[in-house]
């Protein structure tokens, strides 16, 4: 079993939050059989095995722990952030366990599943203009903080270094251990960029020869929910483009088709961004004769079931 992230308690799990991390790494064989050379392995971290159902549990717990240790959360503090859904759900789970109040700025067109899960955790949702996407939610969160001095603690997942640190000390170490140090290529999508940035730093510290490839939508108008086209979006403060050995622009339709194939050929009911992650991993693998390519599937498909266009 890979080492536990250092901010988690050692020994057997005691609370639900001790289950964050140490997600499965599985090899993708059927879906890659005719797409990549025989000497190349493609593996994926299944992040929906985190208790909150997504990779965002890692960053959210790291951010809240960081605020706790700095003494920034008082009895009447209202935690605040923006999210397209998964980070908000992770915050909601953690705040329910910790007994904190949470307000979340969320685009109005976020799907039914996410809104109901947030409601179940008791999160106060501030809906924002759907046409502005995640950037509009960011602007609203900053406005609430500016208009209400002292009322909120702005967690700022897009600018908080505790986000990539969770992956540098957690995700990267897990991948290294789970592959026995054989990983040659790391491929990840860009949303907040925390998982790519942090895991890249951690893997490069282990072996500078590991090639790290970021994947983002190939245009501002795309259907890859949760991902950012950096050139046209508010660029997260934690994003460092210099870390990427390559950056790939992912086309929407092929990514969505790969996501469907994951369910039908690998039994993996994955979320939208997993299709882009797999597309990037296959693009990298195609150019190799041998190697171990690792990617990360941020969440599961259950949170998208009501979106008929993704399945029909």
How many helices?
Answer: 8
> Between the first and last Cα atoms, what is the distance in angstroms?
39 Å
Helix content: 25-40%
User: Major sheet: size, sense and barrel closure?
Assistant: 6 strands, mixed
How confident overall, as mean pLDDT? Answer: 93
Question: Architecture of the largest domain, CATH level 2?
Answer: 3-Layer(aba) Sandwich
Major sheet strand order: 1-2-10-7-8-9
- CATH topology tier name of the largest domain: Rossmann fold
Radius of gyration over C-alpha positions, nearest whole angstrom: 18 Å
> Please, how many domains?
2
Order of helices and strands: EEHEHEHEHEHEHEEHHE
Structural class category: alpha/beta
Structural overview:
This protein has 2 domains: 16-51 and 162-310, 3-Layer(aba) Sandwich (Rossmann fold), CATH 3.40.50.1100; 56-154, 3-Layer(aba) Sandwich (Rossmann fold), CATH 3.40.50. It contains 8 helices and 10 strands. By secondary structure, the protein is α/β, with parallel strands linked by helices. Mean pLDDT is 93; it is low at 1-9. It is globular. The protein has a 6-stranded mixed beta sheet with strand order 1-2-10-7-8-9. Strands 5-4-3-6 form a 4-stranded parallel beta sheet, with helices on both faces.
């Amino acid at each position: 079993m890979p080492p536990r992230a250092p901010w988690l308690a050692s020994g057997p799990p005691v609370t639900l939050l001790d289950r964050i991390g140490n997600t499965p790494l599985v090899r993708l064989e059927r879906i890659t059989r005719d797409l990549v050379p025989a000497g190349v392995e493609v593996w994926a971290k299944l992040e929906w095995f985190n208790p909150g159902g997504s990779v965002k549990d890692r960053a959210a717990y790291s951010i809240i722990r960081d605020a706790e240790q700095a003494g920034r959360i008082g009895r009447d503090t209202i935690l605040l952030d923006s999210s397209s859904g998964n980070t908000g759900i992770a915050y909601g789970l953690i705040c329910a366990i910790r007994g904190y109040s949470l307000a979340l700025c969320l685009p109005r067109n976020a799907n039914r599943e996410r809104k109901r899960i947030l409601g179940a955790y008791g999160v106060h949702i501030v809906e924002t203009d759907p046409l502005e996407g995640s950037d509009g939610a960011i602007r609203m969160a900053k406005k609430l903080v500016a208009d209400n001095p002292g009322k909120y603690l702005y967690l700022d997942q897009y600018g908080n270094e505790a986000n990539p640190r969770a992956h540098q000390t957690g995700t990267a170490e897990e991948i290294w251990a789970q592959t026995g140090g054989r990983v040659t290529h790391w491929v990840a999508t860009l949303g907040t960029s925390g998982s790519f940035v942090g895991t890249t730093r951690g893997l490069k510290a282990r072996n500078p020869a590991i090639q790290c490839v970021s994947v983002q939508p190939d245009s501002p108008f795309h259907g890859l929910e949760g991902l950012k086209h950096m050139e046209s979006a508010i660029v997260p403060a934690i994003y460092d483009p210099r870390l990427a050995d390559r950056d790939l622009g992912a086309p929407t339709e092929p990514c969505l088709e790969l996501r469907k194939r994951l369910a039908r050929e690998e039994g993996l009911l994955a979320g939208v961004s997993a299709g882009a992650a797999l597309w990037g991993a296959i693009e990298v693998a195609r150019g190799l004769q041998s190697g171990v390519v690792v990617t990360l599937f941020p969440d599961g498909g259950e949170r998208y079931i009501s979106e008929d266009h993704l399945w029909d």
